[in-house]
């Protein structure tokens, strides 16, 4: 289990999860690709566990952009929670041949999530995978806090 921190919140995930995402994003190389993050909090809300992810079926992408559409028939987060206990906690996508740092588009997407009345997620997580044609170069987890994306250390 890998642990990263921001303030008093620990983000916990298994390296295998990132490796699985990497294989999927390399398959879509040289275009960006991504999806949704699923997880749960510890009872005392000091740890957030990223347990799984979902892929999207409707999206547009290029080497510098990934825009997903939410298909509720496939991604019914309420049903996922009832069946698994996992919440929608954020987004993930790749940056082919680019840094694992967020763009202004990424920041706006996180702001849109927080502003959405039906989502009710105030601190979404963003994972960005920097990839080449055959490997993971770097990755960063960010948390949206007070209008900013802050990297987990």
UniProtKB/TrEMBL annotation:
Keywords: Hydrolase, Metal-binding, Metalloprotease, Protease, Zinc. The keyword Zinc applies. Residues 16-130 form the JAB domain. InterPro entries: JAB_dom_prok (IPR028090). The keyword Hydrolase applies. It comes from the Bacteria. This is Mov34/MPN/PAD-1 family protein. The lineage of its organism: Bacteria, Pseudomonadati, Pseudomonadota, Betaproteobacteria, Neisseriales.
